[in-house]
Amino acid sequence: xxxxxxxxxxxxxxxxxxxxxxxxxxxxxxxxxxxxxxxxxxxxxxxxxxxxxxxxxxxxxxxxxxxxxxxxxxxxxxxxxxxxxxxxxxxxxxxxxxxxxxxxxxxxxxxxxxxxxxxxxxxxxxxxxxxxxxxxxxxxxxxxxxxxxxxxxxxxxxxxxxxxxxxxxxxxxxxxxxxxxxxxxxxxxxxxxxxxxxxxxxxxxxxxxxxxxxxxxxxxxxxxxxxxxxxxxxxxxxxxxx
Length: 242
Ligand SMILES: *[C@@H]1O[C@H](CO)[C@@H](O)[C@H](O)[C@H]1NC(C)=O
What we know:
Blueprint: H1 2-11, H2 33-50, E1 63-72, E2 77-86, E3 91-99, E4 104-111, E5 114-126, E6 128-140, E7 144-156, E8 159-172, E9 176-180, H3 184-197, H4 202-229, H5 234-237
Helix pairs in contact: 1-2, 1-4
Keywords: Signal
Signal peptide: 1-17
Protein name: Protein takeout-like
């Protein structure tokens, strides 16, 4: 959700009259524009996490991801379903850089404790087909994210609008703790699936699952961010004044 919060805070750099009072306006020519945006993000994060109905922002803590695909081939299907992530609003901005002419933004963020509750849904073939489904409770600490955001301007019905065209997220997940609700036999079978198809140690497992998380989270942030910015025309965002 951090990037949605950034998008929202960016708007504050341009919108003057139309914006809600809880946003502090940053001047486009503010010599400390980056710091002003960072301050806005910090002020806004709890509000975005709780949701802002008048701007179509639903509550975002926990964040719910319907389906993460680890593998999807004819014989081997490994999915994580209904993943609930809490703690995403508890982040610190380590660095922020904006290129206002190119509408490009680079952000480095670190999170505190993240909690993921999910249902794994594995259907694979190891000699014979094996299917397993169950709950997993994952916690991880000190995840870091490098985020690159590109915004663009488009014309619709004679009016110009700004939108987020691309977001790239690179997650640094260091280690995690996973708990399952299984007896010994089931746990042995699950471990066999994980070792065969996902990885033999935490580093390998993180490497297998990371792209799916990055993809789904990026798509979600694009959607949420563009739902926010659609409320404002380019002329509102970039008033013709100094
Ligand atoms: C995950 O499950 C635990 C244990 O049932 C619960 O305390 C926690 O609130 C859940 N977190 C999320 C994000 O659903």
